[in-house]
Amino acid sequence: MALAARGRGRTAPNPCVGCVIVADGRVVGRGWTQAGGRPHAEAMALAQAGVKARGATAYVTLEPCAHESPRGPACSDLLIAAGVARVVAALEDPDPRTAGRGFARLRDAGIRVETGVRAAEARRSMAGFLMRLARGRPHVTLKLATSLDGCIAMADGSSRWITGPQARAHAHLERSRHDSILVGRGTLEADAPRLDVRLAGLESRAPLRVLLSRTAPDADAGWHVIADPQDIAALPGDHLLVEGGAAVASTFLAADLVDRLLLYRAPILIGGGRHSIGDIGLGDLSSAHGRWSIVESRQLGSDRVEVYERERNEG
């Protein structure tokens, strides 16, 4: 899964998959889905392993594909040809072109197959691919950087900087893992954000800049404009990062389009500042409960980052 994360935000329409091949207790091949979706993780790992793959175990985060493609052979066929003895996979591929056929093909070739290993973590690692299949839209992360009392800026709008350098670096790493990044018209006019990735070695991984606005911006080229949050379905890629202000955050939350909440909290109190979100359409307090579960929490310098996931029945 750590290998798979290297391709996140760059593999659509294919999922970001990781593969490790182990022979005699030693890793002999590593692979992850490359930019644009090819080569697949298994193909990369098998190429590295070479003849050492024969009799080995292949660990993979998703069922090896079974469908033919002009871009390359099916990974289930590659594993069979390489002579692996065992395949351990986290998830069955929900893509109807494979959906169990890859496992069946491996078993028919005499390869032992184990499934469901660390499935929950694997679903999280390829949430964008699964969300696109389940709901026809990208997986949405809402990023908020707030004070302890929930403010994102002073009353006059000044917000540089609420969080420290470690938290800001982490936020840039998050940008590098998304296909698109969205802000609203107010943020564009107030801050003229670059929305790029300012980490050494990852500068080329800046996501597509998206503006939520009913009118075209008075800005330089390179902005993709959508008029309604539901329009995210037509965006390229499977991962969208929302970095807009309170209005945009509230709009996406009210539309129930946020799947992951990335909350950076600085140990400061602002008082009469600008709050992170406004009305999100809750009718009563009881409906606010049971929507979010925390999946990660850690310290970043003086700040703390918490990651929450929306509780859903699918995706």
UniProtKB/TrEMBL annotation:
Pathway(s) of this molecule: Cofactor biosynthesis; riboflavin biosynthesis; 5-amino-6-(D-ribitylamino)uracil from GTP: step 2/4; Cofactor biosynthesis; riboflavin biosynthesis; 5-amino-6-(D-ribitylamino)uracil from GTP: step 3/4
Binding site residues for Zn(2+): H40, C65, C75
Gene3D superfamilies in UniProt: Cytidine Deaminase, domain 2 (3.40.140.10), Dihydrofolate Reductase, subunit A (3.40.430.10)
Binding site for NADP(+): A145, W161, T187, D191, L195
Functional summary from the UniProt entry: Converts 2,5-diamino-6-(ribosylamino)-4(3h)-pyrimidinone 5'-phosphate into 5-amino-6-(ribosylamino)-2,4(1h,3h)-pyrimidinedione 5'-phosphate.
Family per similarity comment: In the N-terminal section; belongs to the cytidine and deoxycytidylate deaminase family. In the C-terminal section; belongs to the HTP reductase family.
Listed name of the protein: Riboflavin biosynthesis protein RibD
Lineage of producing organism: Bacteria, Pseudomonadati, Pseudomonadota, Alphaproteobacteria, Sphingomonadales
